[in-house]
Design a protein that fits this description.
The structure is a homotetramer.
Chain A lengths: L7 H13 L17 H7 L8 E3 L16 E6 L11 E2 L1 E7 L7 E3 L4 E2 L13 E2 L2 E2 L11 E9 H5 L9 E2 L1 H11 L8 E5 L2 H8 L10 E2 L3 H7 L4 E4 L16 H9 L3 E4 L6 H8 L3 E6 L9 E3 L3 E3 L1
Parallel strand pairs in A: 9-11, 10-12, 11-13, 13-14
Antiparallel strand pairs in A: 1-17, 2-4, 5-14, 5-16, 7-8, 9-15, 15-17
């Protein structure tokens, strides 16, 4: 196979082409969420038949080679200790989490990625200060991201347990997965791509993901644009490491978030969803993503729910 | 009107009666979530018609008389500063939040309330240690709480802007609200009761909610049991302050969470949902609550989504 | 009495005059710490006679009108719970603190205050990024600030319990306190000025300090320069509120930290030190300030120790 | 050499013997700090001759194999951004730190270690709850720990760069170091033992210290008792890993903190102090340890200062 990488020049041209296609005007701040029309959303509810729900998030992770700054949950009250109020006692706790990182399931807001000094739709990077993002924060998705979800399972297509770190998925392979799974990704869909990242982590243990990670080839960004995908989730962070583009780390983050205005969902888990889809005999479902209300925030921990 | 309070003796008898009705056996850890059967959940999807979604959470609050230990969001990377990776830069942040408290929208897990040394279904309070809750943690709801949501709007019924702190709602008034709104709360429903708490806070400013707060009368717990409600949310924390029960602070927390196994949602906001319901001409909707995956956790910040 | 305030013009002239006096050159980053010569430090050890030590810090404060974002200490291990190591168990905890604020005792680094776009000695404000201060951070004081401490007690001079919020101390009054206490502030001394702020807080309860606070008159900055004081501590934050200077909040912070290069110590407590000085019959002592090693940090919580 | 380990039986006998020697009675909560009499403290000031100060703390560490839950410092205000007050702007930050751990320099309070259900002097482990330690917290050392410090440099004695992980120092070797350095540890001294741990970390990089660490042999506890040492610091945590005692992890923590009432200082750094001692031609100095005021706390990050 020839070199799968992409030159900086081609990357830049692709970026310009994709971002030039936006039909929503200079004031738009919702990006690809615009693909979720009321009609599409209402139709997505028709995916609910079995009356079953499945989490797509992984539990809060502890320290590991891919989690050097782990979140924490500390107890502040224990119910077996004397209570400070009459007749009842409480258990309570406090959480601390970095919103991004390489293990905990989270969503990236459109302010997360700056390329050539600008965020999505040309918003200057300087709108993000130490107080937070004055524009394009995760609170723009406060009403949730709800639509038809579709899961494409690449290891299933390849007949392997998982993609090895460094491997990537092309647009052609996404289309092949659609055919194999007898599904088709369409306008307003929330696309989830399973690479097996988390299964590898569960079975072989964590590794230094920042250096070596399976992901999507930058050419998939054209597929995302054509299909009018509204959001993209992955069990890695969608970006291959090392980068497939010379001089640009995280090209998928740039193309998806910054050029296309796609909210990205990173480090999801699909081992609950896959058997549920198999049992249901289909790979689509109603999907609800409910970010915390963090005005100014660059994203949020999330627990996306698939409803079949 | 006669004294609306409840004696400790009557409260205790009510507690015992309610908790004795559980049909799910000693090993049950899901409580009232059991009311959400697959058939009811699938039927709830039929509530989606307009293809519109609405948040029921309030934005992360800053310090105030009702928020003495506010959560925080701090930036860890600013995109306008030199990047540590090639060709792209990021905005990132970190959050710290107490899971409970009197402002931020959150869900209480079944481990949250201990009464007479035990949690829901007789689980000993000692299962909660400094590591977290070994049983009944919020991760038991990891697949989300999804069902038909119903909003009962008490200020609307009364023709007032809000209930004043200290006022309460009886079971009879919940039933009156159902009639006035031409809706009926049934098995597996997620019930939301609007007291106007947050509207008062927005208009008149925060006050010391811990001392003075509108809520539900303990007799509503019988209503919740009869109607087989699966979860209960409120724009206060459902409990009147001062307490209506002698010697027991938070009687609704005890009855709902501990006796009935109801997940409670505290300090929601309904000013987005009310006009959406009015526009739709009905007070029911598909509702999705997606707690973060916090194993051992006593609850989670949440953003419940109504889908109409 | 005539208006005690200072015009913006006079303030600016004072600022320029003071900052022009620095004898340490453009590369200096230690500021007034340069006044602590080895000889002066060695002489200060002669203050130790009684063999007694006294804290000048207050305990970590909880939420209050002057502490809207309180620090916290959460337990992470309890020794009465089963241990994860053989034969022994541990108590452990985690702390979270904002370094500055209006209650907890802390030290301000020289990077803390920017005036007209620059920090101390003309260092551009831009050296402080989301990663921290590349110059003038608190780690520049990593070897501690050790010298002769002198406490001037203004309420004692005035015969009052405390200065009321809004009141201020002039350079003339500092000199009067020296005479009354038969002491004299000299080169390299660490000067502590008691206003009674914390005693008022203890006796009458906390108030909104950000709006109303006793402090020093800007003319004391000339006194600090003449006497070659090496660091300045106060039981408020040294600055009067409302500000005595038109259009400049925190003029003492600007003059002391930014113009003179003085590390400022805010919200100390002196109710342990006053009786110790009375018992010793003198108001000077060896003083040791040991900031935590926080590279890039804007200051540190501290517990200054007086040794008599 | 014969097996250097200690049986559980011998360890337990040693523990009982040491703890039985306490002359301070059942109500004592200061432990070995009682050895610091006013006369000894005043005499220690005589160690100050050169007028030079040196830190014994290391900078806040980032994530590493020995630092799986690193502390953090986040900016909350940047001075180059628009200010929220007139005429001046500020840099400010927030810190989060686990008090213990295997890298950051800290002090252990007497509540830190429970052995056979009790803390120092038989205080029941249950005094430590989720609110903190009701007794024996670090705030008992609020007035600082001040006395004569003595540094014993074991790699210097052995002529090596550092002790390898797993190696240990006996009481005999401490005495040998005293002779070689022409110093003698006496009543009320703060003893610091350099193992070269931090130099190894700096030169060869961090490793999993929890599994493999140089430390002191449990027989040194008798030396500490005989010499009436008031506090003990080390560049590791004083305990060898793997443990030298069957079935008891951290035997030095048990003997020093729990039996002798010694505050332990862990993970100090001595590479600034060693050359300062060499330059001064002696290994003793005035030492000031100033824990933060954390009532209920199990310890504190610290920056011990040596004054020569």
């Amino acid at each position: 196979m020839s070199d799968p990488g992409m030159s900086a020049t081609r990357f830049h041209a692709l970026y310009e082409r994709l971002r030039g296609q936006s039909p929503w005007g200079a004031a738009d701040r919702r990006g690809a969420l615009n693909h979720i029309t009321p009609a599409r959303l209402a139709a997505a509810a028709g995916e609910v038949r079995a009356g079953r729900t499945v989490t797509m998030a992984a539990p809060l992770a502890s320290s590991a080679p891919d989690n050097p700054e782990p979140g924490a949950r500390h107890m502040t009250r224990l119910p077996a200790e004397p209570s400070d109020v009459p007749g009842v006692s409480f258990a309570a706790d406090q959480i601390t989490m970095n919103v991004h990182g390489d293990v905990d399931s989270h969503i990236d807001a459109l302010c997360h990625v700056s390329y050539e000094g600008a965020l999505y739709n040309g918003v200057p990077a300087g709108v993000v200060t130490s107080r937070g993002a004055a524009e394009l924060s995760i609170d723009d998705a406060r009403n949730g991201i709800v639509g038809r979800g579709v899961l494409l399972d690449i290891p299933r297509l390849r007949g392997v347990g998982w993609l090895e770190p460094g491997e990537h998925v092309t647009a052609a392979e996404l289309a092949a997965a659609e055919r194999a799974q007898q599904t088709r990704v369409g306008p307003g869909d929330l696309l989830f791509v399973r690479l097996g990242h988390r299964r590898r982590r569960d079975e072989d243990g964590p590794w230094e993901v920042a250096r070596s990670r399976a992901g999507l080839h930058p050419d998939t960004a054209e597929y995302l644009a054509e299909r009018q995908v509204a959001a993209l989730g992955c069990d890695s962070n969608s970006d291959t490491a090392p980068s497939l583009v010379d001089g640009v780390a995280f090209p998928m983050h740039v193309l998806a978030i910054n050029a296309l205005g796609l909210h990205l969902l990173d480090y999801l888990q699909f081992h609950d969803l896959v058997p549920a889809c198999e049992a249901a005999g289909r790979w689509s479902f109603l999907c609800v993503i409910a970010p915390l209300r963090l005005p100014g925030g660059t994203g949020s921990p999330v627990n996306p729910i698939a409803i079949l």
